[in-house]
Design goal:
alpha+beta, Lipocalin, seven-stranded antiparallel β-sheet, binds 2-acetamido-2-deoxy-beta-D-glucopyranose, secreted, Olfactomedin-like_domain, Olfactomedin-like domain-containing protein
Length: about 350
């Protein structure tokens, strides 16, 4: 009881202990999951590689700042019980697990070549992949999205559904993830579930200037395994801001300010495994920033040939583990090999 009262008044040391405990607890869980998976794989070695990797990856904060500790504490306040359970265990193989996770989610993945899927009429438009489904828009502003089931139907333009959005979208760098569209509308980021038609939003005071060269987008929404990432410039600012947003609550979890990344000379960008990749106008793709270790990186570059201007969107889809690209009316899919 005493502890609960202390926590209520926010004693920072309790928060610190608690968040360390929470991180250890998660690591142990990860470890167990990995051991189980390893066993499963041994039992059936014909099993293809599953998506388990993405679900058991947890953000490991290389440098845990005071602010982060408070945040972790607030996010996981409910699991003090877990912390007590953990006290009894020995977190023995933690560092090995961390190393393994870092390897699995590193900048050194190989990005494939863009595979041409289909063509639309307008040079400006968008195409988002959500598992086996494509969602396509015709312009950089509008109320409707066309949905296609699979590459072949997109190629032959057999529309599965026309989705009407409750608010118009702005720009082409929006996103559909697990049937929810996350998009820019004036000063807001909207989430709209295409199935249940429920919507939510958060206000974001974004600069009116487009984020990228040859683009109309004021912001770029990216979805990946750990949440939604919004790339934008704040009103009256010229530096890049990135906010990570919780899928379910639509609350900002973290903010980053990245003055060394000049988006005005890039044609697009995307986020995968908490790593920001820049896409230059000549099709050069480079990992440039690691959000979890808070460091600028200079990773291996990949050249995507044949993309023509304007490059309207480049979005990573964690469900199909591939990247959707809309460039000058052409739609491409890029496989990501882990
Ligand atoms: C469908 O894809 C093929 C190549 O895979 C391409 O030659 C053809 O132009 C595409 N059709 C449309 C309508 O985009
Ligand atoms: C999205 O769907 C995938 C596959 O069904 C699931 O593994 C993942 O947890 C979902 N993500 C969210 C945020 O609900
Ligand atoms: C923008 O697109 C035009 C062609 O549409 C191209 O000539 C120009 O180089 C592009 N700008 C940048 C910065 O790549
Ligand atoms: C992130 O930035 C926004 C806008 O400035 C601010 O309202 C919010 O409190 C910040 N959130 C965190 C977690 O730092």
């Amino acid at each position: 009881m005493k502890l609960a009262e202390t926590l209520k008044f926010g004693a920072p040391w309790v928060c610190l202990l608690f968040s360390i405990g929470w991180i250890f607890y998660q690591n142990i869980q990860i470890n167990e999951l990995q051991i189980n998976r390893h066993k499963r794989e041994l039992n059936s070695n014909r099993l293809p590689k599953t998506d388990d990797d993405s679900t058991i990856f947890m953000p490991i904060y290389a440098q845990v700042s005071k602010k982060h500790i408070r945040k972790v504490c607030m996010e996981h306040f409910h699991s003090l019980k877990h912390y007590r359970e953990l006290e009894k265990k020995e977190p023995s193989r933690v560092s090995a697990v961390v190393k393994e996770l870092k390897r699995k989610c590193s900048a050194e993945v190989s990005l494939g070549k863009p595979v041409f899927i289909g063509e639309r009429k307008n040079s400006e438009g968008c195409a988002y992949l959500d598992g086996g489904h494509w969602h396509v828009c015709e312009m950089s502003h509008g109320y409707t999205m066309l949905s296609f089931k699979g590459n072949r139907r997109l190629n032959s333009s057999e529309t599965r559904a026309v989705q009407f959005l409750p608010y118009p979208f702005d720009g082409t760098d929006n996103m559909v993830y697990n049937n929810t569209m996350y998009y820019s509308e004036n000063d807001r980021l909207i989430s709209y579930n295409l199935k249940t038609e429920k919507s939510n939003y958060i206000p974001l005071r974004t600069s009116l200037k487009p984020l990228y060269a040859n683009s109309t987008s004021r912001l770029d929404v990216q979805a990946e395994e750990h949440g939604i990432w919004v790339l934008y410039r704040r009103q009256d600012e010229t530096v890049l801001t990135v906010s990570r947003i919780n899928f379910h609550t639509m609350q900002i979890v973290s903010n980053w300010t990245l003055p060394s990344i000049d988006t005005s000379t890039m044609c697009n960008a995307f986020v995968r495994c908490a790593i920001l990749y820049s896409v230059e106008c000549d099709g050069t793709v480079t990992p440039v920033y690691d959000f979890y270790s808070h460091t600028y990186i200079q990773g291996r570059t990949t050249e995507w040939e044949g993309l023509s201007q304007p490059i309207c969107n480049v979005q990573y889809d964690p469900n199909s583990k591939s990247i959707a690209v809309y460039a000058n009316a052409k739609i491409y899919k890029v496989p990501v090999q882990q």
